[in-house]
Amino acid sequence: MGCGPSSRQNSKELKLPGANLIFNHGQLQALNNYFSEIIDYSDYFTRDPAQEKSLVLIERLIQRLICGVGTLDSRFSSKHLICLEPHKLTNKPGNSLSYLVRLDELSTPHLYPENGGPSCQLIEPEGGPQGFAKVRISGPGSEQWAEFIGNQGFLRRDKMQERFVELLAGSAGRSTLVGRPAEVDESALCGSPGKVIDATHVQRLLQASPRQVFYGSGEGSVKKFPDPRDFRIAIVEGCSCVRLRVGMIYTTEVGVETDVEVTLVLGIGFTSWPSTAHFPTRIYLTHPDFLLYHQVSCTGFYVVPAPPHPTLRCDDRPSTWQIRFPAAEQSLLKHYSANSLPSRVLAVLRALLHEIRCTNNGGQVISDYMLKTLLWFRLEEVVGLKDWTHDKLAIHVLVIADRLVSALRTQRHSSYFFPWFNIMLNSPGGGTLHYTEEDYNHDADLLTYHLRRFTDIAPCSGDPDPWRRVETAMIDKWISVLTDLTPPQATRGTRMSFYPLSSSGYSTIAASQYSNRQLTYIGHLLRCMLNVRSLTLSKTNSLPWFQGHAPENNANSEDLVYLISTILEQAKYSFFGMTKQFHGIKNKSKAKTVSESYDSAANQLLEDIRNDKKQIDITDDNVVVRDVLKWLYYGLDKDRKYLAPVLRPYLAKLFNVSHENCWYIPDWSRRQDTDEIESLSKFCKLVVNGNINANDGIVDAFHKGWSWAESIIKTTSELADGVELIFTPFPGKVIRHKVVDSKLDLTKNTISRSLGRKKVVSEQKGFSSATLPKHIKPFRECLQSRLQRTTVDDDLLTTSHNILKSSSPMTQTIESIHRYGNHRGIGSIVHSLITLRKFSILQEVCAILPESDRAQILDEIQRVSKEARRPRRLARTISARMKPTQIYRSTNELSNLQNDEKDEEAGGTLMGTCRQLRNRNSHPSVFNPAFFRAPETEAVSPLYVNPPKRVGSLSNESEMMYLMRSTRRKSLKRNEVTTNL
Prior knowledge:
Layout: E1 6-8, E2 13-16, E3 21-23, H1 25-41, H2 49-72, E4 81-83, E5 96-102, E6 119-125, E7 132-138, H3 157-173, E8 196-198, H4 202-207, E9 213-217, E10 231-236, E11 242-248, E12 259-270, H5 290-296, E13 301-304, E14 321-324, H6 326-334, H7 341-359, H8 368-381, H9 393-410, H10 423-426, H11 437-453, H12 466-485, H13 492-495, H14 508-511, H15 516-535, H16 555-583, H17 588-611, H18 621-638, H19 643-661, H20 665-671, H21 675-688, H22 694-704, H23 707-718, E15 723-730, E16 733-739, H24 751-755, H25 778-787, H26 800-806, H27 809-815, H28 829-835, H29 839-845, H30 851-868, H31 872-882, H32 910-920, H33 957-970, E17 976-979
Parallel strand pairs: 4-8, 5-12
Antiparallel strand pairs: 1-2, 2-3, 4-5, 6-7, 6-17, 7-14, 9-15, 10-11, 11-12, 12-13, 13-14, 15-16
Helix pairs in contact: 1-7, 2-3, 5-15, 7-8, 7-9, 8-9, 9-11, 15-18, 15-19, 15-32, 16-17, 16-18, 16-19, 16-32, 18-19, 22-23, 23-27, 25-30
């Protein structure tokens, strides 16, 4: 990843090797304030209402064009317009819009699975460029795509793009092609504002199909789409995607004339994960963001018609599609709020790029995607909470900018997802297909010049913003709390398993130091890892200790082997990778010998597990995790020569990260809750089947405490014309219900009729039957929003289109899964402190705030403290009474409906998930070390056929290369590795 910066601890200087600059402590402090002023006061990040109106008109025009495309050719229809630059993430200067047009007929999951349709197979060819693939269509309806199929049977991206551009031109040239929004077939097209969604929403939204509801304009039957004849639309040539330059003619409604660049990207969606991607397989269990990285890897990917760089060797270039991860990328960005340091670092880098482009004839090679990639690598590399406080803003900006200088000069930097995909040549935001070496050097020189100018920034005082100082103080306090919660010094030797074995044969003393919270956290890690592995397209290498499918009476032992072998592999490559990197070439032979000895010892440990006859409760994940840890500590104590040096540092890191992150698990689990989306889906089914009136159902759900119902009521009260609820149960069927504020009678009680819930009698002031169940803990949410300055995005919107788009019920419900936190971690420090009842710490950090803000927050802290001190008996009583309100259930309407919900499968437990994956695949390894080594060609997607079985040792690097070569010899007649999705 290029040369890294060095920091001199004595003088607190930062050295940038790429730009050959040194910044002292005073300069870094000055740059912190300078960069903060750029973010807080610069005009780069502000948009006036006229500008927002112009962008809304352009977006409505794009919806009109895409609806026209689907009307002209239903094969290219798209039910949703996927925004690649969401409203919450567009903190960058300039006027530009980017959208992904999903080809619904070819993508998975299908809009309406019961109707069937063609399916796509992703083929990652051997010897082709990594990050690219080919697509083969099969199944019913595939003959309709015959004109786009090449001679070798693959879907040609160039013909698909040409047809799409032709349809766009036809849609723009026929003003009467699409009527009013109310006349659009919303079951297949994207005419309503609620159909403009983020890439992170697509997969969960389609899982709810056909129980979906979207917002339409209350005046959709009156207003029309923008007329394409009122715009100057030009297609920019020489781009890998469809790029439009839209010039808007002056109108009194907008009051501004501007040109907006719109990028339209065709995409075929897949729910799986590419086999050649080294993300997230390169992430160890000991990484603090392991859960985040594996969660975003379950969001699928797209293939888009972007060609490989001209300098890359590629067979059948017209049929080669690029693999992109818009949902995963947006999920990584949505983990942090606009006030967090990672978001502020990206904002400064974007402002720097904008300044280079405006003041100099350069900055054309540098793309926004390059900046995000370097930021993601920086977040993965630097994981400490203290390393991401607001006083480190300048350090991260300078380090990332310096790495960008090095990448520009070498014209090389790996993608965040593929190890051999060069983003300097294939960056999605690059624009032009090919740049010269002079272009790269010119941008590197300009960036170095701006970095050199930063050395002249005048020193100034500390950060004047009290909220950022509160955030820093809270992080310091939280680190102190974690230190106090660490096991005492006297037991740390025991925890790290330095004592002899106990009489039971296990190092139970060490394993018992893990709390139940830590076991729960580690169980989440293992489950996420198994989920990602189940989505990976092709096989990884089989390890020598695997001896085929185990007999049924030994299945539990094989499940443990499956999990423990993963940890043994990770520990091995974590240890020996560092050994080779720091000890140089001279000790490679010694490291190889030690590696082989470790393999033999690990194999013996797995044999001991197979021979053990002890039975455990496999239905309890914590029991399974504790047993896994016991076996690991047992192996550490049994073989102190080979296993202990490798496992001890790995297990120590695992203990530390589980100790720090286990307090975030309640907050993490709360965001994964699906009750809201399930209740909204049931509401949709009731309305579609005519079992309930839409207005009555909304009021009923509001009294039951569902947030989506409260959001609908709020939106209807803000818009004079109300909203239109659009239901799309099956193709060709669209149901519209107009909801206005005057028709929603909140005093009407429909509980006994539709939901059948017992009336809750308040046992405390403020908790009545009409109160939302989640209002039993509103103070905690309010306190978090105040302390972390979480702004409500609806308050920043000024147009009805943006309000409908952002507050659409499905969109808002799915969006709640994202954290939008102000600090590093998978959860909120405020929630964790409240869980630990550390209210005094919250009161201490509030002393930094101004008097006006301090009084309100202290009052919130007092209310939360009283709530936490309520008698446990009363808390249990109210909790028991409130629990049924979390289920949207009816006694009359729902009693006659078939319950089509899936029963909980055996795979719901950790061991059940492990067994399903083990039975589906013929290898026990989940961690794939092959992704760390360069393929002999630009990209190899290995499919190991009949791997050699060796019992003595694990596969090492030479054996891995032998397997790859032998595989290619066996596959001379098969140039591609095909995986059926």
